[in-house]
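WARN retry 2 of 3 for item q-0093 after timeout on previous attempt; input resubmitted unchanged.
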Amino acid sequence: MECKDNITKNVKLDKPLFFTATIFTGAIMLYAALMPESALKTTSSMFHWVTRTGGSPVLILSLVCLFVCIWLSFGKYGKIKFGGENVKPDFKYSTFCFMMFTAAVGSSLIYWAMGEPMIYINDPPMFTEPNTPEAARWIMTYPLFHWGPTGWAIWMLPGIPFAYFLWNRKNTDLRVSTICSEVIGKKRANGAIGFILNILTIFGAICGVASSIGFNCSLTGAGIEELFGIPNTMMIQVFVVLVFIAFFSIVIIAGIEKGVSKVSDITVYVAFALVAFIFIVSNSTFIMNFLTDSLGVMIQNYFAMSLWTDPVAKSGFPQDWTVYYWLWYYAYLLIMGLFVAKIAKGRTIRQVVLTGLIFGTLGCTLITGVFGGFACYTHFENVLPLQELITEVGTSGAVIKLIRSLPLGTIALVVFLIVEFLMMATTLSGCAYSLSLISAKNMSLDAIPSNSIKIAWAIAVGGMSMVALFMGGSIGAIKNLCVVGGFPLMVVMILITASLIKWLKNDIKTAKEDSEGNLVVDYKE
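OK item q-0093 returned
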């Protein structure tokens, strides 16, 4: 079966991989639809086992990812240039920074920037009592930590082996199994082990994006209820998922992807304009002071927070939050790997890694600081009864009412929902594109995957997001998807990083400096 519509010649669908992955996804969706209580119980048990039994390895490996990124940046390999001596970057540096930041955060950041501090208001970390000065020190600290350098290291690290394999080793087959062949051997990479690695990577990507869509649907449904009085039921949220898929499908069929890319850029600018608006019309002094204080607490306790498992009191906080967050980042391994590879040409390893770590963290800090600071201000200054709102209408409903409380609240809410919708549609587009590439043989990043294949993957991702809705649509059900999909990808992360290190050690022997002081690898198989 050759994909003929809008796809580069000689790029063929990997039938066993595509159909196995889609059938597996469909079977899980059917199970959740027919037996939602059983599905919730099963995924909850898996969540508990992974986070409690595997929590320590997750925390340790994630911190190691940060150290590896720093080592790659400032060690001798940091000067290696992707592509060769005369290769120039495809994007100017400001655009490169902007693209890096918007790569994967999408609507999830906007949801959790408000939602996470609001949840901690009722249930603060570090055994503190609600509504106390000590609790206030941690309410914003953990959101900043969860969207900080460690998370971005997990996102950035997969991109380096993908990019190096493509631009320096001149290999266009970027399936995970092929990249891991340096460690597991070509025979295993082309056999059952490689096939399993590819399936796990695809499943992780589907679960990661599906969980983001799940949170977005809950938020969009709450917004519809606030604006039009239509109850935020499961049917409304399923309808939102279908609208996502329909919107994406129409765009693909119309062939206006470049136009949508521009709309996406405008959407991000509007999102930052919304951040500026909230900062100006709210109490900017409180927000700045609260952000500064929280940053100080995070910096002081960074390594303790990174490795905290709470084995004595067994509160479950690090497992339910930090471990969950890191596994969500791991779930994006494929998407970020391919994305970074696509935009890294002409840059050095140091430039790519530090751009993600620095500008990604700064962007998340800004959005989390303003949105989260605004939520904390309304609570501590008694502007809105957030504790009661969360109990009555849930986190999504409370976020919507918080936005509605702003000056020009209805307009602000409409803009907020539009930004959420378009960001999520962009994330879905990137996921479908990545899955289309990895499910093809002889693929290249210059290939344009078949419209039908991209739509099929979009349906698969949308279908997986409905799994959480069938299981009740709670935050816990959505988080279960991330943990189940992300946990196996820790192994994949180790394998592709080990492959990268073996390549670098071998290729550095023949590397030469160019006129700019960068290292150029002259790789010959």
